[in-house]
Amino acid sequence: MNTDIEVLIAGAGPTGLLLANELGLAGVRAAVVERLPQRTGQSKALNLQPRTAEVLDCRGWLEPVLDRSLALLPAGHFAGLPLDYSALDTTFPHQVGIPQARVEEFLEDHLAEYGVPVLRGRELTSFRQDEDGVTTTLLGPDGAECTVRAAYLVGADGGRSTVRRVLGMPFPGRDGRVGMAVADVELAAAQGESDGSGEPWRLPDLSPDPAGVAFLLPLGGGVHRLILGGPEQQGVDRDAPVTADEVRAALARCPGPPRELRAIRWASRFTDASRQAERYADGRVLLAGDAAHIHAPAGGQGLNLGMQDAFNLGWKLAAVTRGWAPDGLLATYHAERHPVGARVLANTRAQMVLTLPDPDAVAVRELLADLLTAPEANRRVAAMIAGTDIRYPMPGAPDHPLLGARAPGLRLPSGHGTLLADAASAVAAAAAGWAGRIVRPDRGPAADSGEALLVRPDGYVCWAGRDDDADGLRAALTRWFGAPRNPTVRSGGPSRAVDASG
């Protein structure tokens, strides 16, 4: 029995891999188990929203991801209605067009820097937890069973999560009412056209149509992503193969010149089922990503929601395993992320209604399209889809514009909290007892004159006050970073008071 793992993560998708990177950065002994023996190369998602780009940039991981991207799209959409991202308060006012498989590839390769293994071909089949940890049973590629003991188990194993099922966690919501399919297809170039490598990415046309949705997105090399949803996709078992006839019928509905199908590389079915785990944590077992919530892929929010779950959870799990977490810190994962997930489920349900060829739905769609021509309305909906308007409830001055909100443009490569304050201020001196858990950068965004900001490792402002309010800062530091200790200072680099031992 292996007893050297602090956190075992089930699932090597973007959520599980980002969480593993966060834990590895903090020096946590983690491991990822994945039932598939190797990457499939398939990509359900094709985009990173602005907030997810900020998350990766925060750690210095965005640039290599951008090197793998296909396009930047300076807009989002709500049921196909355009959203202008240029008005967002972000360094990245665009979607990054990138297949999910390329994001996974980078995140898994990067784990080698921390020595965090991804154990493929191992299926988690059961577990039991006690006061001190979780004992899991894994089925290996040779059919042999083994047990692994960890302090915590995180289920990031998708919408049909084994971890959630074994945990017995209620998963309320509703079953799918609309059937759709997705396929990566090889197409013959139309006469006089290229293979699609240079075609610009466009927003999907999701206007209600009795014939159904059919949208084509170029991936290059003659390969396109086809989204299809019409009468022939309704009432079909989710595991039934997507047929060539279905694909050809959808291609005939796509705008533009006729397209000839050469091959289907990969295809699957999905629905607008909408469910959310009653709780994201039960004892030492936690849920993240699709294991915690499923919804229609409207607006391109799914991958991003899961990765942001991981970013919220990672530093908190690290604090617990390193022994400095204050009481209740891990409980804030559910408290903060469950409402965010609920809001995504609500807006995706609304978007699906707006694509139905029902006269009343069409009327609502036309009204919303008119409202979204107003810049402020467009900006608010865009920020919701982009994930940049998330504001977690924080103790303190609720009217401060940054409290609970993200601090855009702040680099946090070490995974520590950050104090933005004048070096000679009273709060800078008061923070000395938390050296090793927070840093004060020599360079970076500053608070207004006379103000100070405390930023959590996930980039959200957890205290804002005057730079002479040492008592207020100490209270916030204790609340989020535990009891103080004698500072350990290591010189050098762009930050001071960095000691990764916590």
Description:
The chain has 502 residues and is of the alpha+beta class. The chain has 12 helices and 25 strands. A hairpin with a 4-residue loop joins β9 and β10. Among the domains are: 2-46 and 113-172 and 275-331, FAD/NAD(P)-binding domain (3-Layer(bba) Sandwich); 179-271, Alpha-Beta Plaits, CATH 3.30.70; 417-496, Glutaredoxin, CATH 3.40.30.120.
Helical fraction: 25-40%
CATH level-3 fold name of the domain at 2-46 and 113-172 and 275-331: FAD/NAD(P)-binding domain
Question: What would the average pLDDT be, to the nearest integer?
Answer: 91
Q: Over all CA atoms, what is the radius of gyration?
A: 24 Å
Number of helices: 12
Strand content: 25-35%
Low-confidence stretches: 487-502
Task: Return the CATH architecture of the domain at 2-46 and 113-172 and 275-331.
Answer: 3-Layer(bba) Sandwich
Shape: globular
Structural class: alpha+beta
How many strands in all?
Answer: 25
Straight-line N-to-C gap:
28 Å
Question: What's the name of the CATH homologous superfamily of the domain at 2-46 and 113-172 and 275-331?
Answer: FAD/NAD(P)-binding domain
The description of the largest β-sheet is:
8 strands, mixed
* Highest-level CATH class of the domain at 2-46 and 113-172 and 275-331: Alpha Beta
